[in-house]
Amino acid sequence: MTRSTKADKARRLNAAFAMLQRNTPLPKAMQRLSGQFDLSERQAYRYLEEAAHLERPVEVTEATVPITLKVPARTARRLRACARSSGLTIGAIVTQALTMFLNTQRSHG
To answer: Which of 7, 57, 63, 92 could, after both became Cys, cross-link 88 (CB 3.0–4.6 A)?
Structure first.
């Protein structure tokens, strides 16, 4: 059996959240979630429990792949400091920066 990805978990949580928002009775929601995602009823119940504490659906993130970058030492220090002060991961900061850069390249190139 393969492990669930973060995106899988987010989809299940969002489905559970939607059922709770529609006031689906818990036993029926457990059965639906279990059938829809091939989960045990116990697993479905755990997703429903977690979804009950959400204020809104969670973001379904795209799968990530590791890459290696070489940057100047000063840039690495600044990046680490930015990550510490913002609470974001280095990967999140680099992804945001590269996305912005690539979007400008598309419109100018």
So the answer is: 92
Contact 48, 20 (CB under 8 A): yes
Q: What is the DSSP string of the chain?
A: -PPPPHHHHHHHHHHHHHHHHTT--HHHHHHHHHHHHT--HHHHHHHHHHHTT-SSPPP-PPP---------HHHHHHHHHHHHHH---HHHHHHHHHHHHHHHHHHH-
Q: Model confidence over 71-108: pLDDT tens digits?
A: 999 999 999 999 999 999 999 999 999 999 999 986 65
The four Cα atoms 100, 54, 4, 97 give a dihedral, to 10 degrees, of: 10
Can you give the pTM of this predicted structure?
A: 0.63
Residue with the two structure tokens 């279990």: 34
* pLDDT tens-digit series, residues 44-56: 999 999 999 999 9
